[in-house]
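Batch manifest, entry 17 of 40.
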Amino acid sequence: MKMKIIKFISIYTLILLFSCQNEEYQDCHGTVSGGAYFDECGDCVGGRTGLFECTTDCNGELGGLAYINPCDVCVYGETEIPTDSCSSFEYNGTTYGAIIIGEQVWMTSNLKTELYNNGDTIPEYNGDNSIGSLSKHTTSEENSELNIFYSWKIALSNKIAPKGWRVPNKSDFQKLISTLGGSNLAGGKLKESGYTSWNFPNNFATNESGFSALGEGYRNELGIVQDIGKKCFFWSSDTIQSSDTALLYLFALYLSFDSNFAELNPESITNGHLIRLVKDN
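Output type: structure tokens
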């Protein structure tokens, strides 16, 4: 009897062992002999799941959503930094802010350097022959804010912007305008609101883009600043040749106190205009 019991136990053990060896393994996705597994976030990943293992984001959060924005800042997720925020930077003694508008990064104020990026001094404008020059202008006795209008040659010089930034071309401005709803809507979104720098009525000005364009006017060929509070122009780096007079023009972004339009028009190279830089892609 004892031998029968031992024999039965041995046979039963073999049956169990055989059954275990032939049982098909399933991963966490339910795939037989699959390679899916649970990662540190508790998600079934790999194998045939189509999912990747969770990783640490730029803020150090496992499985976090923070990412590096175009200004090289870790935003979103647990950072509490808005996705359109960028860090400030210093250039030739002036600190500039930056902001994301759509897929572009723009300075939040106008360029005010009196030096090229190689350290050379930019001469002041003194007439028609000073084509590579600048004009300094203080808004008023009450407002000591310094505005600088640059000659067209500087916009084309390729040595006015710090590393990683540049004078925008025509396409850059067109993309900016398109992002803000088109030329008939973008003007108000680009202009500073209120009447500090713009004359009444400063139509439709909301500055919701954060571009903060001011009504600084322009410098004419005589060196006189005109249309303060009424207009502003920003040089591009694209030229256009007049077919009938053979004169050279530069495209410039134009904003006005009485309009919601943002216009991109050819501008005379005899005038001096503002420069607003865009970050390299």
